[in-house]
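Consider the tokenized backbone below.
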């Protein structure tokens, strides 16, 4: 025995080095297994350990198909079969462990059809080690082949047939499930009922006390749940429901199974056997044992996991209409939304249980249900959601959690559910909303007045957790209320209903007005704002590094004591983000105009929290009160919010929820909406630079597009704050310093030299951040990234979120030159113009629906903003500015050259960019023949395009160019392009428009010709009309052709006739001259006019005469109708 034990240790410790001795050792082990009598159990136990060590040594080689490996694998399987057939439980456990290792290295060669049933039999063994080995093996099998494991387990029940006496009823919810049998009956089999192996494991979980075994059961059920729950929803939900419902149905027997103390649970197996022998095997008249609270908590956790798994599966799980239609097509389809009533019932049962742990799990399940189903519409009642019918259930589940004797952690969790319920928008009845709102009001009263005897029942950290949870819940409700209020203000107001409609519409009496939620929160805001600020101040102090520990107040903060400072940090860490967002919203709405005196604060906050007042006002406790001005108070608040935000954004932990990051960024964005905060951050430029650097650092570690969008929003707020501040300074300088003749345009970053200092320049920090975002979504913009070996040179289409990000980035880039002096602009403009033109090149791709992507719109707007910038055109920078404009236009013309390898370019976007340069930068472009020829060629190709939409837009852009006040610019384009236009418009007579787009192109072309006539001099008017009038008359149809023409052709006829009727009186002499020179044109026009007048007369004759209502001669004072 000792020799075999030593051999097993040598094999195990040697690892791969023992590979050369595997064959003789394996032969020795098999020989001893066959020759040593089974009565020598210790020898067989050591042989099992040796076999397991050999399998580990060979390892993945067992998958091979060579002769030697096949022999070793067969020998290992034979050895496992021999040890598996031994009567000793330890030997059997070793065999199961060997088979488990074999399945790990060579899963195809392990026969699950025989292994799984044997494992199921061992689940009811009286030996703990054997049960451990069986469950551990099942855990590994379920991780890879959960469906096969459950199928083979059910086959054991099918093979048992009607032999009820040969097995043990292992249904965990049947009468007597809690009892254990003798060892002899355990080895005969296991009767797996319709609940399957999962039901057996739930039953074991309810009986076992060994931690390792329970952990393996949890993992096994978890793997089965992840693999099978979505396809078999009803089965798993029924399992969870049976476990959770058992506590309410079996309350009479609860003391037997659930009232044991910890010492009785740790008794050995035989004591448990004798305890439960009184329950007969088939005596159904005796009560069953209720599941223990740990089992029910696990069932509630499984419910939450099912919801999460369905969220990542088919979207029909959260769409009732979609689920019903899919169910009609295939009745076997099962969706979570169809089981909503069961979900609510299970969460309600758990949340109202007597076990505190189960109440926590139930409240968590209820919160998940609210968040996932809040927006699911009710198909039968448009405008309503399916959760509305469960308002009473939710309220009843939450109400017990706010009683006086409820533990703090449950009240804290209930506050979180309350905020989720109120903020979900499910509640449409004001009275129902008040019921849940009153629960939060009562909790707020406890925060202000203390919780009675709670301090004697629970330690101070529990009170901290509850108070912060209440403040967090109120903060979340306030954020949602402000969001609803903002949406209601932006929407157009509905018209007032008449009295009769109001009387008939009974359903709108209790409907929730758009601002009702904010009206419920408004009365509590004075107290809430002070408590929120105190909590933020506490959090700011608690996050100080260790070297600043001396700055912590000796008496603690508003909601923590020095003794519980370490545990309090965790509670503050979970609550600070919504509170920060709420404080920012409050300050932006009214807070910056509100000062708080020490007396008001002391009146609002009770004695137990008066130390928060001194902390919040930067006073030491016991010192006389000091009066601060409103400006100083606002500055302190600003520093508090910015300090908390920057500290968090500097180094957010990887495990930090993304909601905290988004709440912090939304708080900064909201704060910078207020003029007070804008002035503060603009005056202290280093603060803005630091904030931009922190945001840049955040982008390096956080990839979600939602975070990046929020970051660009904050950057835009910072840039606009600097713009407003600089513009105010320039305006002041224009008014006050005219005598000194100081140029206000010289203000801004860069000064006279144009240098931007990294670390001190706001523009440089912003460009660094924005360039990072652009390269992240468009890597080919950077040669370093695109030339690196790791970069894949495939140009993928930008997603919707990436397009929005690129557009926002380009918009901010175009605003940066306004922050610089003329010399500073010359420093950054080459980079900015290069980026904008490259974005235009990469994103201006033709689409089927002719929609302009957001990056293209932003690039065009950016070009317009920069080209029309007034601060750059000075004597010192004029030459450099002209060169920049010309090179930028040349780049756009170069990018617009068609290439076979590039997608089809959007001509309209390129033409719009060209027109922006022609219209806004004419002085810089006039006289450059190469640019002029390039622009004309682009317009010519657009005029000759086969796409009528391109033609129409080209005409519109040419109209703006022809109307330019600088004749030196417009005249060459008129001479070059007008003849082509006339030819195109004359050709319409032969190929009339067939649709509205083609009609639109012709109409826009005629408008350009009419503009040219108006722009022409009087002596040239006859020649110009000689081009326009015959063209219009050629569009007129005779009476026979008009009747059979298409709609677009008829519209063109009417359009031409209306224009001719307008041109005649406008230019009477020239019009008569043209008409007199061509009598056939006059005849055709007169015929068309007569036909039009005749058709109008017929239409007027068909209309019935208007009915005249005679008014009564005597008018009654009261209307009876």
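A designed sequence for it:
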């Amino acid at each position: 025995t000792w020799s075999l034990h030593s051999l097993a240790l040598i094999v195990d410790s040697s690892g791969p080095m023992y590979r050369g001795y595997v064959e003789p050792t394996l032969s020795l082990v098999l020989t001893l297994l066959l020759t040593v009598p089974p009565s020598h159990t210790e020898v067989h136990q050591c042989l099992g350990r040796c076999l397991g060590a050999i399998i580990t040594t060979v390892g993945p080689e067992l998958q091979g198909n060579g002769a030697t490996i096949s022999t070793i694998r067969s020998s290992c399987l034979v050895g496992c079969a021999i040890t598996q057939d031994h009567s000793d439980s330890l030997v059997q456990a070793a065999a199961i462990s060997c088979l488990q290792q074999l399945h790990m290295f060579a899963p195809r060669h392990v026969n699950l059809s025989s292994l799984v049933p044997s494992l199921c039999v061992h689940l009811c063994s009286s030996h703990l080690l054997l049960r451990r080995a069986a469950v551990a093996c099942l855990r590994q099998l379920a991780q890879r082949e959960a469906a096969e494991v459950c199928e083979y387990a059910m086959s054991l029940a099918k093979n048992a047939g009607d032999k009820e006496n040969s097995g043990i009823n292992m249904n965990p919810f049947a009468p007597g499930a809690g009892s254990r049998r003798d060892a002899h009956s355990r080895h005969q089999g296991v009767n797996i009922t319709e609940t399957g192996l999962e039901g057996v494991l739930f039953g074991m979980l309810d009986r076992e006390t060994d931690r390792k075994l329970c952990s393996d059961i949890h993992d096994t059920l978890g793997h089965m749940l992840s693999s099978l729950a979505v396809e078999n929803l009803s089965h798993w939900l029924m399992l969870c429901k049976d476990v959770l419902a058992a506590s309410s149905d079996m309350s009479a027997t609860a003391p037997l199974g659930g009232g044991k103390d910890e010492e009785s649970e740790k008794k050995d197996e035989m004591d448990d056997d004798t305890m439960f022998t009184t329950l007969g095997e088939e005596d159904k008249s005796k009560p069953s044992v209720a599941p223990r609270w740990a089992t029910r908590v696990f069932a509630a956790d499984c419910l939450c996991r099912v919801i999460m798994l369905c969220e990542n599966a088919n979207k029909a799980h959260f769409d009732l209409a979609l689920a019903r239609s899919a169910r009609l097509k295939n009745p076997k389809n099962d969706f979570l939304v169809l089981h909503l009533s069961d979900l609510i019932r299970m969460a309600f049962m758990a949340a109202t249980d007597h076990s505190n742990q189960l109440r926590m799990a139930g409240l968590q399940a209820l919160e998940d249900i609210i968040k996932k189903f809040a927006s699911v519409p009710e198909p039968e009642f448009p405008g309503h959601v399916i959760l509305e019918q469960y308002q009473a259930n939710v309220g009843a589940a939450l109400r017990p959690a706010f009683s006086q004797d409820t533990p703090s952690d449950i009240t804290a969790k209930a506050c979180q559910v309350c905020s989720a319920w109120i903020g979900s928008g499910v509640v449409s009845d004001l009275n129902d909303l008040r019921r849940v709102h009153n629960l939060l009001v009562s909790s707020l009263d406890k925060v202000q007045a203390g919780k009675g005897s709670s301090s004697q029942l629970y330690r101070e950290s529990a009170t901290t957790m509850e108070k912060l949870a209440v403040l967090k819940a109120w903060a979340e409700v306030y954020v949602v209320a402000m969001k609803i209020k903002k949406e209601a203000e932006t929407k157009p107001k509905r018209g007032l209903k008449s009295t009769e409609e109001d009387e008939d519409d009974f359903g709108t009496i209790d409907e929730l007005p758009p601002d009702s939620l904010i009206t419920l929160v408004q009365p509590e805001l004075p107290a809430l704002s002070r408590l929120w600020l105190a909590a933020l101040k506490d959090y700011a102090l608690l996050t100080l590094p260790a070297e600043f520990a001396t700055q912590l107040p000796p008496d603690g903060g508003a909601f923590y004591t020095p003794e519980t400072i370490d545990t309090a940090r965790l509670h503050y860490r979970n609550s600070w983000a919504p509170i920060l967002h709420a404080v920012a919203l409050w300050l932006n709405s009214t807070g910056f105009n509100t000062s708080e005196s020490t007396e008001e604060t002391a009146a609002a906050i009770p004695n137990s929290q008066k130390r928060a007042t001194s902390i919040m006002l930067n006073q030491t406790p016991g010192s006389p009160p000091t009066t601060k001005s409103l400006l100083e108070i606002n500055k302190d608040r600003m520093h508090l919010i910015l300090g908390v935000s920057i500290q968090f954004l500097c180094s957010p932990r990887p495990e930090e929820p993304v909601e905290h990051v988004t709440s912090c960024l939304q708080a900064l964005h909201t704060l910078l909406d207020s003029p007070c905060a804008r002035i503060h951050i603009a005056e202290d430029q280093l603060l803005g630079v630091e904030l931009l650097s922190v945001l840049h650092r955040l982008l390096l570690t956080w990839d979600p597009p939602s975070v990046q969008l929020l970051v660009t929003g904050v950057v835009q707020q910072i840039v606009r704050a600097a713009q407003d501040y600089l513009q105010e300074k320039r305006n002041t300088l224009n008014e006050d310093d005219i005598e000194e003749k100081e140029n206000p345009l010289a203000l801004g970053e860069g000064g006279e030299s144009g240098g931007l200092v990294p670390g001190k320049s706001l523009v440089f920090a912003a460009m660094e951040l924005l360039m990072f975002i652009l390269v992240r979504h468009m890597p080919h913009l950077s040669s370093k990234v695109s030339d690196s070996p790791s970069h894949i040179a495939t140009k993928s289409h930008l997603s919707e979120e990436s397009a929005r990000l690129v557009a926002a980035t380009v918009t901010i880039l175009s605003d940066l030159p306004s922050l610089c002096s003329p010399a500073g602009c010359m420093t950054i403009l080459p980079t900015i113009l290069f980026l904008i033109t490259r974005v235009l090149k990469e994103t201006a791709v033709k689409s089927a629906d002719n929609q302009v992507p957001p990056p293209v719109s932003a690039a065009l707007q950016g070009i317009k903003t920069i080209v029309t910038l007034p601060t750059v055109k000075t004597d010192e920078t004029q030459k450099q500015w002209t060169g920049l404009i010309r090179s930028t236009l040349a780049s756009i013309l170069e990018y617009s050259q068609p290439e076979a390898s590039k997608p089809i370019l959007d001509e309209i976007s390129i033409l719009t960019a060209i027109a922006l340069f022609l219209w806004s930068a004419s002085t810089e472009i006039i006289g450059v023949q190469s640019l002029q020829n390039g622009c004309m060629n682009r317009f010519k190709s657009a005029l000759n395009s086969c796409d009528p939409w391109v033609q129409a837009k080209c005409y519109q852009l040419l109209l703006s160019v022809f109307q330019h006040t600088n004749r030196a610019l417009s005249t060459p384009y008129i001479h070059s392009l007008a003849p082509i236009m006339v030819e195109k418009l004359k050709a319409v007579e032969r190929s009339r428009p067939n649709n509205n787009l083609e009609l639109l192109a012709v109409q826009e072309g005629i408008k350009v010709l009419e503009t040219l006539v108006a722009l022409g001099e009087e002596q040239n008017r006859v020649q110009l009309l000689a081009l326009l009038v015959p063209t219009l008359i050629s569009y007129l149809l005779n009476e026979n052709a008009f009747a059979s023409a298409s709609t677009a052709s008829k519209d063109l006829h009417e359009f031409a006739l209306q224009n001719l009727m307008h041109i005649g009186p406008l230019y009477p002499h020239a019009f008569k001259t043209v008409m007199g020179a061509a009598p056939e044109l006059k005849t055709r026009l007169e015929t068309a006019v007569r036909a039009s007048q005749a058709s109008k007369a017929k239409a007027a004759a068909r209309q019935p005469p208007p009915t005249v209502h005679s008014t009564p001669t005597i008018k009654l004072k009261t209307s009876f109708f």
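The radius of gyration is 41 Å.
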